Amino acid sequence: MATVMFDLKRLGDVKAPPGFAERVLAQAGMADSYAVFETVLGPVYVAWNRLGVSAAMRSKSSAEFEQWFREDIGRRLVQADPPAGLASRIEDQLQGKRRMQFDLRGLTPFSQAVLRKTLEIPRGQVRPYGWIAREIGHPAAVRAVGTALANNPIPYFIPCHRVIRSDGVIGNYGGGGPEAKKNILTLEGVQLKRLQDLARAGLRYEGVRSTRVFCFPTCYHGRAARQENFVFFHDESEARAAGYRPCKHCRPAEVA
Amino acid sequence: MEVTERAFERLVRDHQDRIFALGLALTGNRHDAEEVAQDTFLRAYRALVTYAPERVRDLKQKAWLHQIAVNVVRNRVRGNRPRLVELNGSEPDARTGPEEDVMRKAEIDELAARVACLPPRYREAVVLRHVQELSYAEVADALGQPVGTVKANVHRGLKLLRGDDHGDGDV
């Protein structure tokens, strides 16, 4: 009897496995979880919590990602097994098939508005910084838009790479520099060379003769038109003077 | 809210080993033990956020968590009896340390598996009394049974454990 009791007492000395407390805190919503996912962009570290995906970065190591998260987001972070289906939701999001939920709590209302607007830019298209500024009701805040996008905690997923300068310069990119930005845009089907040739010539809008509608050059609508039916404009007033109205989808100018 | 979160983190750090050990003794394997322990703390969290601060302060944490854990196990084993684990081969675990620890761990797991094979009413009583070393009064509280019943169940459980020993001696 005594030895059985002694053995039982030893059973009570068992320790919880490493990381147990952190996993519990993550499940209670007091910490974010993360894992590394293999994507079309290569391995991407992704953090999530019960509100949605909260951060993503192409870090070199877990340590680098954890440090960046701590400094940038400031919440607790725990490595974890991803919930079932997260990998395929990530894939769908990056391929533009489905929208996922994001947790943008830590950001200012302005940054949140910028990022939510950025989510509306379809895959394969780009918009200038000024477009975001105007759409969110702060037409003069173009630089602030740039800052908000540069600090996007969820690049790739919130497609800040689809926002470029109106003079055609690709601009810097928090998700891996201008080269990475070009690569992702090309991957998404943007014809960068055509876009930059137009920009260099000072041509910002493209109109279609038959419809009398002008668009951003990457807008999907009007893509079916024949090459010889395209006309190009330097600015809004030129387009309007020629009798063209702005496209309702890409909204190159306020629809009067 | 912030205060509750800090209180909860303390609760987890203070009691995680104890509640994991309880899960292991009641389920007989580490995988289920972790699930039980996680569920226990998550239920505790959901309850804590609804409690008034005085109630949180006056909580007898140990007894309270044991009570939750016992209920978690009772609910999950309904229709899902603990597996009669292969006694020699506990599941390989990436986190095992040096060989000595592996030996110790294998012994512990085997013991846990044997305890988990006891009928539930004996298992709960024996584990709370002799693994977790609660007093009879505390065990009676956690199980919602009279002290006399608990004493009888502990006694019968220990008897079964000794009888169920396959002659290895009491290691």
List keywords for this structure.
heterodimer; A: 256 residues; alpha/beta; Double Stranded RNA Binding Domain; DNA Methylphosphotriester Repair Domain; four-stranded mixed beta sheet; 10 helices; 10 strands; elongated; B: 171 residues; mainly alpha; Butyryl-CoA Dehydrogenase, subunit A, domain 3
Helix and strand layout, with pairings?
The complex is a heterodimer of chains A (256) and B (171).
Chain A: H1 2-11, H2 20-27, E1 32-39, E2 42-49, E3 52-57, H3 62-72, E4 77-79, H4 86-94, H5 109-118, E5 127-128, H6 129-135, H7 142-150, E6 163-164, H8 177-187, H9 192-200, E7 205-208, E8 213-215, E9 230-233, H10 236-241, E10 245-246
Parallel strand pairs in A: 1-4, 5-6, 8-10
Antiparallel strand pairs in A: 1-2, 2-3, 7-8, 7-9
Chain B: H1 2-27, H2 30-48, H3 53-58, H4 61-77, H5 99-116, H6 120-131, H7 136-143, H8 147-163
Short description:
The complex is a heterodimer of chains A (256) and B (171). Chain A is an alpha/beta fold.
Explain what this protein looks like in three dimensions.
The complex is a heterodimer of chains A (256) and B (171). Chain A is of the alpha/beta class and 256 residues long. Chain A folds into 3 domains: 20-94, Double Stranded RNA Binding Domain, CATH 3.30.160; 106-192, Orthogonal Bundle (Arc Repressor Mutant, subunit A), CATH 1.10.10.10; 203-256, DNA Methylphosphotriester Repair Domain (3-Layer(aba) Sandwich), CATH 3.40.10.10. Chain A is built from 10 helices and 10 strands. Chain A has helices spanning 2-11, 20-27, 62-72, 86-94, 109-118, 129-135, 142-150, 177-187, 192-200, 236-241; strands spanning 32-39, 42-49, 52-57, 77-79, 127-128, 163-164, 205-208, 213-215, 230-233, 245-246. In chain A, strands 3-2-1-4 form a 4-stranded mixed beta sheet, with helices on both faces. In chain A, strands 9-7-8-10 form a 4-stranded mixed beta sheet. In chain A, helix 6 crosses helix 7. The longest helix of chain A has 11 residues, at 62-72. The radius of gyration of chain A is 24 Å and the shape is elongated. Mean pLDDT of chain B is 82; it is low at 84-94 and 164-171. Helix content of chain B is 72%, strand content 0%. In chain B, helix 1 (2-27) packs across helix 5. Chain B has a single domain (2-83, 99-163), classed as Butyryl-CoA Dehydrogenase, subunit A, domain 3 (Up-down Bundle), CATH 1.20.140. With 171 residues, chain B is an all-alpha fold. Chain B is built from 8 helices and no strands. The A-B interface holds A 1, 3-5, 7-18, 20-21, 23-25, 27-28, 30 and B 5, 8-9, 12-13, 16-21, 24-25, 30, 34, 37-38, 41-42, 45, 95, 108, 111-112, 115, 126-127, 130-133, 158, 161-162, 170-171.
